[in-house]
Every structure is written in C-alpha cells, then in structure tokens.
C-alpha cells in the first residue's frame, strides 16, 4: 500500500482493477522521494497499489500525476499488479478512461463507499447569492455585481472591499439568527491579505467572536489545539484553502465560501512562479462544503450566483499544466529506473500532458545551469550531472536548492542551507502576530537603507529569520550545552531535567518572539540536508571552513525582561495564537542581533548578488557582457547614471540635473531584479539587469563539481604537531593498525595510542610509541589523567579512527561520549589549540550525524579530505550503499573547538 501514511505489500488474485472513492484526513506519504525503492518492490512482488487520500488524486499535483503515469507503465509490465485509487471528489470517468487501455481484458470498476452509516449523515444546505441577498435584505443585482462581477469563470476574481463587507454582514446575520453559541462559522478566503481585511472588520466585535486563523504561516497544529469549544464567544475561523481537505475542524455549522483561490503559475517573462486569484472549481467547492455537516446540520453560503457556479470548471486546473516543471523534469532524469527516466516520453503519458515547449524550456534551463548534460545524438537522453543529482536529492524546492548550493560555492554553506529552508518552511521562526506580520523582524535584521539597492521585504524577512535561528543557537542552546558540560566537573550540582529545559526554552522563545517548534523544524531539516551533502562530497565541502565570528566566539546577549499585561492587544483577541507565545513578558534589549553579528551584512550582500546571478541564468540576460571591456567597467563606476526622466522627456532640471542626459550613459540598476520576485518587465525594463562588475567576473567561473578523489599523505601530516614536546593521541585504533602505519611517516616518540587489549610485549613500544593498555572505552583515557603518560597540555592533535562494521549505533554512542568528555577536558584545561581529526567513511559520517554530535560540544568542522589508504592502511569499515554520483570513501574530518568567550568553569554562573 502506498498512501495514507503507511507502506505495505498486499497480494491480490483479483481479476480486475478497482477505483475506490473515499476520503480521510491523513497526510499523504511522500512517495516520490522513495520512488526507486517502491518501483523495485512492485516489480519483485505481486502487489495491490493503493493510491489516494485527501489531495493525492483529486487535487492533481504534479507528483500525483507523475505517480499515476509511472504506475500505468509498471502495470503494462507486471500483470499481477492491481491499483486502487481513492478520492471523494475526483473525476472518476477520467481515471477510468486513463487506465482502460492497459490491454489486459480487465474491467475498471467504480465502488462508492460511504464514510459513515446513512442514518448518521447530517443535512447540508447550499445557498447562493440570490438567497444571501434575501437573508441580508439587499438588492440581488447589486449584491451580484459586487461579489460576482463577471458572467464567466475567466472574469476577474479579485476580492473587492464590498465582498469583505458582505461577508461581515453575513457573519453577523448568522450570529444573530443562530442561538447555539457553540456552532462555529468557517470563512474561506483566498489570500493572507484577504484574511487580514476580514479580521480588521471583525476586530471591534471581540466581545462576540473568538477569531481563529488557518494559513500556512500559522502553525496548523497549534491553531487547531487553540480551537477549543468556547461557551462565551462564537468561533469564527478565517481560512485559506489549507482548510479544504488537510484538516478537520470540529463544530463547524456554517461555511461562507468566497469561491476564490490563489493559484500559482509559471511566468515565462520573469522566469519565476507567480500567483493570481482564480475562481474555484466545483470539486474544490464540494471539498469546502464537506467541512460542515459532520457533527451537526450545516449551511454553505457560496458568494456566486447559481448560474455562475454552474459554469465553473468541474475540477481544478491540473498543476502540471501551470508550472515550469523544471524540478519534475530533473527528478525524472535522475531516476535510476529505465522506462520512466525520459521526461519527454513520461510527461506525454500523464493524464493531461503538458505543452512540449514547456518541457523543452525546462530541459534547456537545466542544461544551462549544468544540472543536465545534453544528449550527444537525437536518440540519446539527457543525463544528470553531479550537480543535477545533488540538486534533486535536496528536500527543498528547486529555487531554494539552487540558492543553497550557490552559497556553498562561496564558502557559506550553512547560511545557504538555512536560507533555502526558510524559503520553503512555514511558519517562520520569528513569531508573526496576525495583522502585523512583520512586527518583530527588525529585532533580528535591518537592511542598510543607505544602499542604492535596498533589499526587498521578502529577502529582509529571510535574513531576519536566519539571524533569529543563529541567535537561538548561540544564546539559548549554547548556554545549556555549556551547562551540561559543566555538570561533568561539578558532579554535586543538580542536573536540569530535559523536561524543564524544554519548558525553559518555550519561555525563552516567548520572551524573544520566536516559535520554538519552527526553530526545531528548521534544525531537523538542516541536519537532513547537510548529511545529504556529505554523501555527495562536492568540492566546496572540502574547502569550506569555520566563519570568522567564531574567532573568538564573542556574541553576547543579556535579557532585559519587562512584564506587559497587554503586550499586544490585537494578538490577544485572536484565538488561533499559540498561548505559549504570549506570556505577558518580553525582552526589551532589542535589537537582539545587529548587522555586525553572524556576518549578517556580508550574508545579505551575497544573497542579493546570488539572486541576481540566478535570475541572469534563468532569463539569459547578458547585460553585463555588453559592457565587459575595461573602459566600460570603469565608466560604469565613475559616470553618472542615465536620468530616467530625461529618457521620457520630462526632466525639467536641464544642466542642473545630477544624472546624465546622454543616451550612452549607464542605466540605473533595477531594484526588483535582485529580489526573489524578480522584475515583471523582463527585457523591456528600462533599468539595468546587471551584476556589480567585480561580482559578475567571479560568478561566471563558479561551478558545483565533485571533490577530487586523489589522496595525499601530506593532507593529514601537515596537521600533526612538529614541535619537540607536542604529542598526537590516537583513540579507537582497536588493533593499533593505524598507529603502526602512522609511525612510518611520523616520529613514533610523539605518538600516544590506546587499545582495549591487555598489556603485552609489542614492537610498537620498541619504536617509541606510548601505549595505554586495557582501555575498554577509548574516551576513558580522557578522564583518567593520573594514568595518562604525558600532560594534556602537550597533546596538540587527537585522532579517532571509526572503522565501523555493523553496529553503527554503538559507534555513535562512542563518538558522542568522545566529543562530550574531550570537550570537558579541553574546557577545564583551556586546550583550545588542539586539532580533533575523525577518520570515518563519509556515508557513515552522514548516517551517524557526526557533525551534529560535534556541534553539541562546541566542535566545528573546519576541513575534510580523503584518507590516504595507500600510506596509512586500508579502511575496512562498512562503506554503505550509494545512489548515482554519491561516494563511499574514508574521509578525515578536522574539528576545532570554538567555545564562547569567558567559559572557564569558574566563571560560568
């Protein structure tokens, strides 16, 4: 079974394929991420494939259409395979026709399955604008002209102020005519802005209504938890289409449907996804109708005339016909399964094939950005490059993945990954009070207003949330990481329970207007992504180092708490708010982060430049190349920009104008081209779509390549100390194998090695290697200073060889204890000039999340390089399984400790 949140195989001996209609509210399984494993299981077993739940079939996402095309291809090769499709509102005739040409002499059946017993179904009554006009005592024609101005579905679907006013009147009418205060009203609106406008109208009536918001920027689980039955106020839920099918809202007796929705489509001029308001389909309207009549009788008010409703599309426009398909085309090309790895062929076999030009444009773009290699012949296929496979593997949207890897190429991988996540994740880490969404953004980042090209608002919000994440990591998380290490020294101090730390974190986040669940979500996604990157080993990963703000790690923040009984009256009126986010106390030591902290100014500048580079790639704009000689580069910097009023004949300053009146002068830069939304005017824009000259020259040469596989003994040897009294400590070298090999390249008298074996005569000792025998756990030698043969102050490098075979989790525990106790030793003795080098297979490094284990103890990865097995011995540990373009080799990872300033244990109170 695939879908409904679980996976299983079910043998079937039925002679027919079955289409089953049903509905439930569970989240769909992300099957496309597991496509190759699923295909292998299907081909190797007699299975019934069950596809569907809310949104999988009838919402017509690109992924669901591709899944059906893949399934159909597999059914043609596997006669034992059976398919069950489930949906409450799908166009069953389309699906029946789609599968009837399998040529297996089977019938396709449709079986209607009621959700509940017939006697328990509550009644639903649908009313249209004509009936609404009678209820409100209004003229039917005037109401129709304001709410439903056109006569055809292609007419303007904008939300006029009059529509909001009529919805408000309808809410009041329902409230006055319905005596049961526990019966709630659900209002469907298309955008965040329309939710705000409706909320503004309801805000003065806080004594009557408890208003809840359902939008992707609001934590849905928290919002639903807040929707308790209220006996003193009537609940009014303002929702976008997120409430159509993915959530179940208890107690809804009335639905007001604006019959509008926000639809994403590909803008071929700006080369970006854009949004427009459209009328919903009948299928969507039925989904919205289904939100009531579950626990009581329900009424649905559709703000269109019945005749107009009859002209709406039966089903929503498939996403596969609206989007650029670049991400899906890349995904198909990266598939390991023959037969479904040709995008031109597969996309013509979907339920609604997209225009061939769209596929060609996507392929052309992917070739242009080096994600695909063009076929050498007309019969060849587009092959994914290393960069393309890496892009496809990241659990981010296409543009977010591209941006994240671009940051990696300029040595800012962590920032790039985090910004990419923040582009896709909602709600954001910074708390967004409804009605004043950006209230707290300036506490974390404020753009340089003096800059000629100020950042767009969206980019500023991303930067603020990036700084908020870093602020949480460095202020709250590091404080408790440090306390955990301190407790190892001061064993008499009581340990803080994890439950209490969680409560303290929730409170701290509230003080600083942060959403704890979102911060943890971003952190988890970051770990997934960085471990994927480690599996691929791009060249920039080996070359990236620790950022300058760790040297020294001096960021500080001192809370100044102020109690405010009514800190945000507007937010308190909203029932959807997370109650933990409003405690009546806030930290007034704002701004919490300045532009100088966490390299915020540098990162924001790079962000703007990278967005411009990506837009140049997407649009094929070669503005810079038109001015790439030395004279023009100099003149662009020194000459005045062309006067935009002169060019249209309206400049009245004549010779006094500070801008140039020469048609050869450079155009002023476009302030929209460097933003995520892009410039809507494309090539016709008067302003310049250009890089700064210095950035353009460096941007053109960047290319995401795989690490060079060659190995050199020098890479490791240059990190070892060479002063007479300095030593190398080797841990976890079970049979002293690597110690023996290292002694052939390095002074054995400077090596201290540990082993679990009891004391025995060893030729290694005769070489001069100091051996600690009978060390059951390698990290024990870190704590037992009385048995250590030298002073810890003389140890300048610690080597750990994680030659893992089967028990990976045991090795993870060893590594966790190693980092923990070594951090305690280094902090206690102030040993900050010590290298820690972990040699481990890169696939195991990712699987065990070694970088996260190290970060928890203030160890940061500074560099990594392939381990030279020829010089230091064969690494016999498990190499794991890989996907195309991934590598599985032993890598030496170099860590340095960067603790906060002033962390001596005596000072940490």
Automatic annotation (TrEMBL):
Domain Helicase C-terminal: start-end pairs: 166-336
SUPFAM superfamilies for this protein: CCCH zinc finger (SSF90229), P-loop containing nucleoside triphosphate hydrolases (SSF52540)
CDD domains reported in the protein's UniProt record: SF2_C_RHA
Positions of C3H1-type zinc fingers: 638-663, 664-692
Keyword flag Ion transport: no
Molecular function, one GO term: zinc ion binding
Domain C3H1-type: 638-663, 664-692
Gene3D superfamilies noted in UniProt: P-loop containing nucleotide triphosphate hydrolases, Zinc finger, CCCH-type
Keywords: ATP-binding, Helicase, Hydrolase, Metal-binding, Nucleotide-binding, Zinc, Zinc-finger
Matching Pfam families: Helicase_C
Name of the protein this chain belongs to: Zinc finger CCCH domain-containing protein
Species assigned in the record: Musa troglodytarum (fe'i banana)
Lineage start: Eukaryota, Viridiplantae, Streptophyta, Embryophyta, Tracheophyta
């Amino acid at each position: 079974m695939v879908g409904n949140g679980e996976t299983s195989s079910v043998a079937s001996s039925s002679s027919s394929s079955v289409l089953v209609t049903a509905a439930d509210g569970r989240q769909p399984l992300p099957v496309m991420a597991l496509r190759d494993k699923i295909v292998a299981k299907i081909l190797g077993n007699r299975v019934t494939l069950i596809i569907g739940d809310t949104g999988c079939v009838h919402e017509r996402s690109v992924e669901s259409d591709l899944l059906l095309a893949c399934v159909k291809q597999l059914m043609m090769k596997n006669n034992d395979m059976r398919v069950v499709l489930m949906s409450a509102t799908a166009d069953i005739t389309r699906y029946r026709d789609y599968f009837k040409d399998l040529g297996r002499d089977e019938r396709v059946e449709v079986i209607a399955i009621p959700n509940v017993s017939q006697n328990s179904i509550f009644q639903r009554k649908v009313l249209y604008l004509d009936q609404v006009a009678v209820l409100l005592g209004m003229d039917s024609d005037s109401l129709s002209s304001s709410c439903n101005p056109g006569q055809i579905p292609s007419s303007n679907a904008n939300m006029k102020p009059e529509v909001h006013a009529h919805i408000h009147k309808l809410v009041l009418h329902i409230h006055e005519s319905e005596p049961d205060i526990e019966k709630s009203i659900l209002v469907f609106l298309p955008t965040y802005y329309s939710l705000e406008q409706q909320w503004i109208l309801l805000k003065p009536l806080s004594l009557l209504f408890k208003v809840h918001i359902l939008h992707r920027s609001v934590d849905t689980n928290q919002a639903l938890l807040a929707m308790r039955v209220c006996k003193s106020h009537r609940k009014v839920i303002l929702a976008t289409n997120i409430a159509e099918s993915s959530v179940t809202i208890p107690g809804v007796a009335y639905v007001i449907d604006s019959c509008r929705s926000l639809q994403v489509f590909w803008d071929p001029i700006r080369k970006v996804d854009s949004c427009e308001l459209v009328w919903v389909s009948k299928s969507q309207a039925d989904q919205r109708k289904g939100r009531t009549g579950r626990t009581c009788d329900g009424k649905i008010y559709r703000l269109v005339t019945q005749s107009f409703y009859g002209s709406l599309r039966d089903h929503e426009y498939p996403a596969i016909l609206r989007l650029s398909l670049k991400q899906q085309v890349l995904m198909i090309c990266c598939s390991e399964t023959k037969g479904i790895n040709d995008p031109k062929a597969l996309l013509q076999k979907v339920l609604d094939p997209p225009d061939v030009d769209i596929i060609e444009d996507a392929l052309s773009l992917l070739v242009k950005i080096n994600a695909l290699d063009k076929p050498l012949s007309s019969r060849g296929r587009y092959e994914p490059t290393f960069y393309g496979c890496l892009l496809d593997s990241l659990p981010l949207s296409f543009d977010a993945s591209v941006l994240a890897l671009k940051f990696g190429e300029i040595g800012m991988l962590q920032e790039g990954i985090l910004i990419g996540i923040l582009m896709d994740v909602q709600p954001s880490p910074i708390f967004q009070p409804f009605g004043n969404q950006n209230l707290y953004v300036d506490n974390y980042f404020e753009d340089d207003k003096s800059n000629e090209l100020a950042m767009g608002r969206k980019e500023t919000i991303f930067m603020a949330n990036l700084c908020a994440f870093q602020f949480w990591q460095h202020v709250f998380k590091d404080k408790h990481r440090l306390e955990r290490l301190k407790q190892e020294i001061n064993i008499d101090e009581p340990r803080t329970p994890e439950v209490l730390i969680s409560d303290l974190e929730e409170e701290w986040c509230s003080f600083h207007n942060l959403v704890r669940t979102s911060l943890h979500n971003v952190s988890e996604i970051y770990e997934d992504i960085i471990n994927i990157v480690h599996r691929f080993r791009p060249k920039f990963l080996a070359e990236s180092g620790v950022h300058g703000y760790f040297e020294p790690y001096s960021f500080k923040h001192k809370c100044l708490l102020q109690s405010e009984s009514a800190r945000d009256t507007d937010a308190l009126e909203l029932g959807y708010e997370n109650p933990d986010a409003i405690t009546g106390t806030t930290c007034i030591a704002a701004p919490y982060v300045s532009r100088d902290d966490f390299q915020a100014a540098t990162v924001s500048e790079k962000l703007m430049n990278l967005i411009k580079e990506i837009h140049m790639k997407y649009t094929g704009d070669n503005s810079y190349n038109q001015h790439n000689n030395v004279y023009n580069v100099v003149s662009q910097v020194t000459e005045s920009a062309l006067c935009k009023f002169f060019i249209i004949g309206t400049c009245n300053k004549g010779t006094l104008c500070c801008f140039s009146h020469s048609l050869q002068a450079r155009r002023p830069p476009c302030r929209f081209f460097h933003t995520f939304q892009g410039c809507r005017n494309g090539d016709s824009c008067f302003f310049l779509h250009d890089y700064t000259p210095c950035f353009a020259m460096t941007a053109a040469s960047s290319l995401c390549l795989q690490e060079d596989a060659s190995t050199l003994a020098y890479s490791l040897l240059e990190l070892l100390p060479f002063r007479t009294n300095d030593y190398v400590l080797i841990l976890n070298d079970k049979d002293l194998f690597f110690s023996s090999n290292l002694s052939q390249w390095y002074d054995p008298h400077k090596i201290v090695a540990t082993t679990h074996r009891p004391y025995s005569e060893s030729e290694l000792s005769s070489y001069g290697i100091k051996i600690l025998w009978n060390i059951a756990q390698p990290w024990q030698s870190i704590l037992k200073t009385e048995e250590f043969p030298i002073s810890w102050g003389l140890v300048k490098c610690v080597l750990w060889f994680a030659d893992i075979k089967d028990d990976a989790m045991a090795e993870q525990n060893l590594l966790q204890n190693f980092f923990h106790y070594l951090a305690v030793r280094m902090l206690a003795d102030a040993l900050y000039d010590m290298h820690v080098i972990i040699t481990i297979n890169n696939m195991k490094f990712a699987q065990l999340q070694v970088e996260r284990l190290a970060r928890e103890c203030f160890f940061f990865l500074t560099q990594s390089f392939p381990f030279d097995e020829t010089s230091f011995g064969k690494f016999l540990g498990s190499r794991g399984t890989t996907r195309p373009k991934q590598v599985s080799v032993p890598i030496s990872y170099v860590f340095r400790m960067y603790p906060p300033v002033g962390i001596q244990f005596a000072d940490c109170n």
